[in-house]
Design a protein that fits this description.
Layout lengths: L2 H17 L8 H38 L3 H24 L11 E7 L4 H21 L2 E9 L5 E9 L15 H5 L4 E7 L10 E11 L13 E6 L15 E6 L4 E5 L5 H27 L1 H5 L10 E6 L4 E4 L4 E3 L2 H5 L4 H22 L1
Helix pairs in contact: 1-2, 2-3
Amino acid sequence: MFEAVEELIGEHADLEKQLADPAVHADQANARRLNKRYAELTPIVSTYRAWRQTGDDIETARELGADDPEFAAEVKELDKERDELTERLRLLLVPRDPSDDKDVILEVKAGEGGEESALFAGDLLRMYLRYAERVGWKTEILDANESDLGGYKDVQVAVKAPPSRGGQTTNPGQGVWARLKYEGGVHRVQRVPATESQGRIHTSAAGVLVTPEAEDVEVEIGPNDLRIDVYRSSGPGGQSVNTTDSAVRITHLPTGLVVSCQNEKSQLQNKESAMRILRSRLLAAAQEEAEREASDARRSQVRTVDRSERIRTYNFPENRISDHRVGFKAYNLDQVLDGELDPMIQACVDADSAAKLAAAGDAS
């Protein structure tokens, strides 16, 4: 397992030399790329060095322990410390998702259940907005189609981690995609709807789609690949009804993907939002195709390509939330809906890491 670390140490040292050269920073894009990779390798290198040092300390303690009981007693503690460092290093060497540091576009769509499903979609949106606020991410509603009772038929929101002073995300390897990628799928709710007059519990569902936001260089879209239509936006009555053709519908002709945006009053703003959504969907489609071809890699993932699977149940009468993929269950639904998602997400992260470690072990 540790043979590859020596190569990574060499790469880390080479990156350190490059970043010390002022000429490298003249190209900001290249400097950001080097800084990102350096930040990824630093915890691996530091943990490996600690692991090696602990091994040397164990040998020294054993030698001195032959004549000194105090040194002999230290061996057990050092052995325990080295085991912990070994496990930490194993986790650091788990193959990383190259999109983990990316920002995302998150979409919530009402499903079965009519108006109650739309209200639940609104609850999910607020849950994600509050979670983003808790962890310091920025959010931007790109487009929203509200229901009659204040829920959402569908809504798209961009979620971004603010850059640090060096231009990188504040926690390399712990970007928005690294945490929210486990949210994609069908979310089921069990509760007495606001529209229910007899107090019966209903079951409805809403779908969540999470895609890493693509940069312009990642998805090539030719000028002849698009058909752009403009039309008058629709919405609730009153002054909010648009009186100009500001809504935009973009069709990606090679794939047939269609994206519409009408949330902004400006046609240009709606076009920019639609293009961001289109790029992220095209990137996600390309990544899913690659996953289908790489079945071994796909088996090590907690989150499958099939987004139609039911991943989670929100049971209001019992204040219970259950994640069906990893067996997570807790009775703090009210807190989860207020944005306390970390324990549930961490359960998915841990299961994903364990599956990847097992797959790596089988391959070796």
